[in-house]
Amino acid sequence: MSTVMQTIIVACGLKAEAKIAAGPDVTVIAGGGDGLALEAALTAAVRQGGALVSFGIAGGLAPELRPGAIVVARRVMAPSGRYYEANIIWAQALAGRLHAPLADFAGVDTPLAGVAEKAALFRDRGASIVDMESHIVARVAAAHGLSFAAIRVVADPAERQLPHAATVGMRADGRVDLPAVLTSLARNPRQLPGLIRTAFDARAAFAGLLRGRQLLGADYGRLGIDLGDPLLDMA
Question: Under CATH, to which class is 8-228 assigned?
């Protein structure tokens, strides 16, 4: 009988997400949109054991999800089409603590900006959330026989087209790349209204992320749950 893991390894994209995710007995890694670097960092971190969490903002695919909505993953689909099952007992505990629905997530390696692309992913794969880190977390967890969970808050809803300036705004260290945003905006000033809407959506998402982190508590919902048994991932 394995014991409850004492370390949570959290993967985020942005430094701002990582700051919210931090806590005691938590290792936080900000990928900055570089999937290969994030996978390498997570692989190094799990050598000492632990359980993995994908945490941050995401794109909404299900039409009913509004900016600020918290969603917990039931399973995550990688760009290859492979599905990874989250630890269902942990996921259910998280959903209860966060008062959030369980849903399927889709992973992408580059930002999904278009409304048509979002609609297709929702229609063809049934995913409600899309992000760039959850499938990497799931893949590393599967490779090492560890449990994972994914907690995401909607930023851009399904009907929102992301302007180019919003898709280039993340540096490799997870910080906002303001020069890249301004350069894109200068090249196409007509992006400004969309960029302002995106900023308001992001504000609602980060408010939801902070609220969710407070509800999670220091233990990320793992208290009393054996996260060391990979069989739970198949329950």
Answer: alpha beta
